[in-house]
Q: What sequence folds into this?
């Protein structure tokens, strides 16, 4: 029975009304007690006495017995925790279809039965998430999943859900909870939120929820998403958790001398909306915690790709900021996508970009007729770029729709004020507007001015057959999948169309796609553009807001990961200066085929490795105070309070790459070495101390030292990690150019040049022994400042190594 | 490692010949034994310059003003007065614009040197003008090295992205959902057995290679093993450790070795296909960098090419492009020549360097890009300073681009020591060997043309047909196709036509197939399958059958 994927528990039946009654009674008593104390004729106890009495009663009531059952309906998710002390039942009625029941257990010390059948062997419950498939054929009128624990034991049961085994959202097949795991959550965050800032705990929580519930928490357009972007533990700069959620507000915050920021006051003005480093402001908008990286990811795509405008044209920074905020406000308000696009179409930024702010419908005396004075640029692109309507097989497109659209886009003035410049809004006038009806896309478009006409055109555009065929794949093709096959496009289009004529909502669509088997299939692949990669890696590297604000700059000390320089060095086109103008920024394919992007990234982490290593601490950069990178607050720590290399290495890999599929002996060996191969000292008494751990080794050098030391000292030489990294005769005098006439010997060169494959590593006892020893070394974040600094640096360098692997340039299997 | 699709070991056997030691192999087509001197170019290459945005070549090469009201030369100026910034009604300004700013040539007459061809005799007696500041183009044309191909079409629609895709892929049948097809440059490189080198950091689809080996490759899949992109040829390469240094003392060398060792090992393992590209980059950039560095170590960047990007003095010590304003604190100081110096100037430098290192790099196809041609408004801008500073780099609309690309003076005569070379002029002046110039062919096109009437915003909107250029000292210069078709005359005043443009008469296939054949004999039919005899689909249109048969001398 019960196809299982692991886990479960036992059966006990207590009716839900029992629990419900208890809760109602509790509330009534509390209410009566409160009223009693409020009666005028009552004795007048002191406030303290009142409170004490109330608390006694409340505590009494709250100590009610834990419920021993819960009844679920299909698609229900119980987001609470139960303490199972003896028995507990999860009940559900027959669903007439196969269902998947999932829950999370805190321990495996529990038994699970399904409709009375004990789950054993591979089906036995485990700590963590458990999911069972209950086929329709094995469901009764009433069904129960029963949990039981031995007397005296307590197991926490949580995150219970029941769903179909083939869930769909819109028309897309969704993952079930079985397929929705930690890696899937991280993949969504990588592609749709520049990685986000969610904690490991939060990621696990999402992974243990039904995907449709998790995705709603992960992806929304609110200005602040505290689960996706929580403040760091002990965060000093907390303002963004509740304020500065728009680009304009954030720019004002970042540039103001009155803000509480670690950036020196005289270095803030560059981040003003109207200043040269406005693109850097946006970088910080993405990387600062407390905001919403998903909102910014979509905002970046909208304003730099789909609805792109370009600072290299006539558009001003202020206009772009307003453009960005208004588009995202429309998304936040949940407007249908055609209305969101309408906001863009009616913006000052678009009017400046395309020049239709000058378009006029005027009487030409020579021609003795009204003519359009202006251009037809946006008249074409409002259909093509915004909706994917090219006019294929439409004989009226060029000479009809585009010309008529040009007439629609008349008398959209962007007011100009002397000594101030162009305003950030469009004034829709009628004097020089073609006020009559127009025929666009085969439909009559009316309106007294361009604004009304645009409003009336947008729903027609989004439902145009070409738009229905092209826009969904334009969205997904740019955001999430570089390998869209016709079959995938068909499915995506169907999902889009299923939202109906007037309510195609981008967020609903993206959520459905993000948990679909299309996105999570082996066929999905996404090359990260330079922008996506640099912002993602910044979010993986930065741990608090000081790092985001610094962004790799040095203000009495360097902190944070740079982004803008990377984009520049990649020649990928600045933010808000798309490489292809209104056709958008660097494409995924361009980024993937750019050897320059690879080269710049590689050299940044090797030749200039100090730029990432160095961002470990500063003495006074935090408004005169010292700052330390917060690795200890996120890295895994064992019960003994120590950070072991064997734990930290895989954590870093998962943190940066998002999954462990490619974490093999090869990756393990290099990461262990970068984290654990540091020099220790020999004290006066001959013991080995920690030293300041400043000197480090790479795998090849360590093996070269071991080999050369053994060659010089004999076969019985001590090539333990401790000796190799503390004995100067080993670490400094072995494998050196000095003992070979100023350059390395051929055998040393060969060792330094050796490529150790996974197989080599697995089969080499010396390496395995060293790895074991390095895995047991710890990162000492509690030692003296030098040790602490160098421990932090080693983590930075290890992460920098991961940042040079192929696996940060793309997402795919 | 995990998964599927691609066995790195198999790839290595054909590509890198690496054992456990890395750095010992060489990439396919990259030769070893670099030498420190510019090498003569002994094989034919093409460089394709993509005019991104849909260039209005009808602004660069125009019909002579003609007072006859029904003539092409009158209609043109009547309907282009805003784009040229002349009077709407005062025809004297049209005439002055042509005479002052365009170098006149009459087919078969004045300025028409021996050797130039007018294929089919379609244009006999037609007078046209080449924008005078495109001095290099004028001289190259007069020297018989420029083929002007009229009424050509690279994209069958007026959408930038789709037409660009068609042009770059060399396939007018492509649709927007077929991004994963090879480019005609990549196919040519594969056919020619050489490398496709992008002189810009983000390669265009033109450079994307086909899947498989010539002539059996699959043009509908991409394999970019032969493609490398360059941002700055003088700095390309991966940082490496140095055997002369004690490794314990150099953090960055230890760190570099970690990644180098890692990639060398990973190359012998199986990884998901999606990550292959980055493995390729690692080996290509490393080796390419080493080779080009060795070759160029003692080869200076020529003065004229340096001057494209920054202020330098010429060979005689005098400043190139000196600041002319006596009130400027920089008065007399040398200035960069190009407006778009960072991108296009760098591409010219990369071009020079790739030629200089051609024995190692085995280039057959180079790709370049110059953007900014989507001139819906202000097609011609006349900055105030222009009158006193004709060499200003302030924006002049699309004329800035024309000047960057075609500007300067170079030809059969001696150039001035302080000549103000534009991009290709500087390159031509700097290439040390005649064989270099003989073996280079330039192709130039935008994704579509512009409408024949300007719009009300002093610009031009998207059209279809356009002019394309093929330039090289082995090209048979002249005019191919009817320059200013009679059939267009009526379009100008036809108010029923809202968006008149140049009729497409010649699709790119035959033109560029001829170019391919010049680079690598018989490759054209593989790169452009629609030109193959026996092709069963719709054949590409051409204005006169066989008109490119004698495109090269």
A:
């Amino acid at each position: 029975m019960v196809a299982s994927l692991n886990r479960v528990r036992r059966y006990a039946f207590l009716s839900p009304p029992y629990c419900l009654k208890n809760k109602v009674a509790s509330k009534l008593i509390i209410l009566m007690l409160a009223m009693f104390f409020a009666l005028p004729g009552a004795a007048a106890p002191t406030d303290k006495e009142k409170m004490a009495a109330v608390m006694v009663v409340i505590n009494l009531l709250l100590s009610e017995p834990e419920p021993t059952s819960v009844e679920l309906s299909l698609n229900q998710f119980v987001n609470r925790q139960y303490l199972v002390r003896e028995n507990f039942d999860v009940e559900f009625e027959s669903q007439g279809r196969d269902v998947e029941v999932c829950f999370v257990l805190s321990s495996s010390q529990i038994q699970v039965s399904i409709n009375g059948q004990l789950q054993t062997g591979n089906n036995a419950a485990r700590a963590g998430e458990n999911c069972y498939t209950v086929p329709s054929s094995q469901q009764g009128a009433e069904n129960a999943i029963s949990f039981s624990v031995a007397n005296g034991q307590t197991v926490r049961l949580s995150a219970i859900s029941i769903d179909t085994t083939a869930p769909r959202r819109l028309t897309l097949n969704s993952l079930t909870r079985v397929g929705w795991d930690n890696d899937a959550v991280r993949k969504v965050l990588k592609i749709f939120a520049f990685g986000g800032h969610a904690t490991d705990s939060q990621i696990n929580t999402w992974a243990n929820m039904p995907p449709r519930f998790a995705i709603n928490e992960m992806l929304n357009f609110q200005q602040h998403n505290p689960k996706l972007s929580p403040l760091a533990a002990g965060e000093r700069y907390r303002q963004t958790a509740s304020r500065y959620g728009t680009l304009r507000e954030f720019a004002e915050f970042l540039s103001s001398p009155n803000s509480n920021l670690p950036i020196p006051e005289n270095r803030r003005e560059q981040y003003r909306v109207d200043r040269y480093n406005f693109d850097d402001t946006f970088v910080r908008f993405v990387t600062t915690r407390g905001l919403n990286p998903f909102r910014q990811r979509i905002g970046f795509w909208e304003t730099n790709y789909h609805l792109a405008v370009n600072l290299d044209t006539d558009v001003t920074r202020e206009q772009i900021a307003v453009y960005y905020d208004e588009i995202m406000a429309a998304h936040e308000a949940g407007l249908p996508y055609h209305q969101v696009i309408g906001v863009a179409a009616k913006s000052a930024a678009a009017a400046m970009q395309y020049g239709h702010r000058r378009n006029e419908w005027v009487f030409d005396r020579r021609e003795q007729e009204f003519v359009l004075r202006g251009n037809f640029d946006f008249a074409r692109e409002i259909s093509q770029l915004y909706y994917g309507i090219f006019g294929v097989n439409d004989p009226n497109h060029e000479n009809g729709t585009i010309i008529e659209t040009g007439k629609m886009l008349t008398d959209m003035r962007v007011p100009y004020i002397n000594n101030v410049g162009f305003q950030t809004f469009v004034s829709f006038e009628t004097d020089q507007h073609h006020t009559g009806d127009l025929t666009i896309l085969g439909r009559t478009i009316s309106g007294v001015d361009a604004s009304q006409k645009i409003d009336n055109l947008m729903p027609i555009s989004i439902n145009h057959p070409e738009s229905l065929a092209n826009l969904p794949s334009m969205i997904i093709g740019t955001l999430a999948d570089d390998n869209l096959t016709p079959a995938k496009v068909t499915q995506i289009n169907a999902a889009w169309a299923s939202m109906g004529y007037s309510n195609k909502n981008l967020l609903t669509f993206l959520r459905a796609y993000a948990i679909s088997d299309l996105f999570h299939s082996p066929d999905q692949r996404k090359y990260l553009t330079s922008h996506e990669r640099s912002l993602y890696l910044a979010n993986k590297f930065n741990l608090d807001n000081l790092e985001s604000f610094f962004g790799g700059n040095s203000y009495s000390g360097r902190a944070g990961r740079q982004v803008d320089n990377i984009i520049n060095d990649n020649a990928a086109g600045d933010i808000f200066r798309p490489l292809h103008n209104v056709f958008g920024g660097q494409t995924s394919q361009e980024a993937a085929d750019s050897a320059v992007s690879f080269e710049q990234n590689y050299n940044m982490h090797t030749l200039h490795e100090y730029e990432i290593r160095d961002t470990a601490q500063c003495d006074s950069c935090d408004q005169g105070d010292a700052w330390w990178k917060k690795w200890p607050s996120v890295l895994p720590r064992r019960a003994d309070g120590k950070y072991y290399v064997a734990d930290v290495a895989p954590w870093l890999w998962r943190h940066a790459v998002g999954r462990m599929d490619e974490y093999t002996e090869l990756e393990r060996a290099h990461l262990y070495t970068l984290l654990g191969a540091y020099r220790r000292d020999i004290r006066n008494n001959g013991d080995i101390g920690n030293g300041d751990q400043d000197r480090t080794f790479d795998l090849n050098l360590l093996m070269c030292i071991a080999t050369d030391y053994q060659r010089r000292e004999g076969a019985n030489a001590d090539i333990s990690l401790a000796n190799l990294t503390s004995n100067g005769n080993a670490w400094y005098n072995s494998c050196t150019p000095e003992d070979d006439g100023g350059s390395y010997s051929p055998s040393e060169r060969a060792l330094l040049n050796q490529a150790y494959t996974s197989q080599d590593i697995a089969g080499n006892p010396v390496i395995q022994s060293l790895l074991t020893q390095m895995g047991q070394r710890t990162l000492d974040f509690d030692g003296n400042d030098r040790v602490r600094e160098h421990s932090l640096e080693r983590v930075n360098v290890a992460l920098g190594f991961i940042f040079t692997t192929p696996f940060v340039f793309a997402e795919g299997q | 490692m995990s998964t599927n699709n691609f066995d790195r070991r198999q790839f290595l056997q054909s590509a890198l010949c690496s054992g456990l030691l890395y750095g010992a192999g060489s990439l396919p087509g990259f030769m070893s034994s670099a030498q420190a001197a510019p090498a003569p170019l002994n094989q034919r290459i093409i460089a394709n310059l993509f005019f991104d945005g849909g260039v209005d070549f009808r602004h660069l090469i125009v019909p002579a003003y003609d007072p006859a009201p029904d003539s092409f030369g009158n209609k043109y100026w009547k309907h282009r007065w805003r784009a040229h910034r002349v009077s709407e009604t005062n025809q004297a300004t049209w005439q002055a614009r042509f005479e002052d700013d365009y170098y006149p040539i009459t087919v078969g007459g004045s300025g028409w040197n021996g050797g130039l061809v007018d294929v089919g005799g379609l244009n006999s007696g037609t007078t046209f003008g080449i924008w005078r500041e495109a001095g290099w183009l004028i001289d190259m044309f007069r020297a018989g090295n420029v083929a002007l191909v009229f009424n050509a079409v690279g994209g069958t629609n007026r959408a930038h992205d789709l037409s660009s895709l068609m042009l770059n892929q060399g396939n007018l049948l492509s649709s927007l959902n077929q991004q994963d097809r090879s480019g005609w440059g990549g196919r040519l490189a594969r056919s020619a057995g050489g490398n496709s080198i992008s002189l810009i950091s983000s390669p265009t689809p033109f450079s994307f290679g086909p899947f498989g080996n010539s002539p059996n490759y699959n043009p509908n899949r991409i394999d970019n093993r032969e493609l490398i992109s360059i941002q700055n040829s003088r700095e390309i390469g991966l940082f490496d450790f140095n055997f002369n240094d004690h490794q314990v003392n150099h953090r960055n060398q230890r760190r570099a070795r970690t990644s180098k060792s890692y990639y060398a090992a990973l190359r012998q393992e199986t990884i998901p296909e999606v990550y292959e590209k980055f493995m390729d980059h690692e080996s290509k950039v490393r080796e390419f960098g080493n080779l080009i560095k060795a070759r160029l170590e003692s080869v200076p960047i020529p003065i004229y090419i340096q001057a494209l990007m920054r202020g330098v003095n010429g060979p005689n010590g005098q400043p190139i492009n000196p600041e002319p304003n006596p009130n400027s604190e920089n008065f007399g100081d040398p200035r960069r020549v190009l407006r778009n110096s960072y991108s296009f100037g760098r591409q010219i430098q990369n071009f020079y360097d790739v030629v200089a290192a051609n024995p190692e790099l085995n280039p057959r196809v180079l790709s370049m890009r110059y953007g900014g041609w989507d001139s819906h408004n202000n097609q011609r801008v006349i900055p105030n300073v222009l009158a006193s500073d004709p060499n200003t780099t302030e924006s002049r609309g699309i004329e800035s681009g024309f000047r960057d690309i075609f500007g300067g003076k170079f030809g059969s005569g001696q150039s001035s020591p302080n000549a103000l070379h534009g991009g290709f002029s500087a390159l031509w002046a700097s290439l040390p060997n005649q064989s270099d110039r003989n073996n280079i062919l330039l192709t130039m096109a935008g994704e579509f043309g512009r409408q024949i009437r300007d719009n009300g915003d002093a610009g031009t909107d998207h059209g279809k047909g356009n002019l394309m250029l093929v330039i090289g000292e082995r090209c048979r210069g002249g005019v191919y196709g009817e320059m200013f078709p009679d059939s267009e005359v009526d379009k100008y005043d036809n108010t029923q036509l809202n968006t008149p443009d140049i009729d497409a008469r010649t699709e790119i296939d035959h033109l560029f197939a001829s170019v391919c054949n010049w680079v690598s004999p018989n490759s054209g039919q593989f790169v452009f399958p629609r030109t193959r005899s026996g092709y069963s689909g719709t054949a590409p249109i051409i204005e006169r059958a066989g008109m490119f048969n004698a495109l090269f001398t």
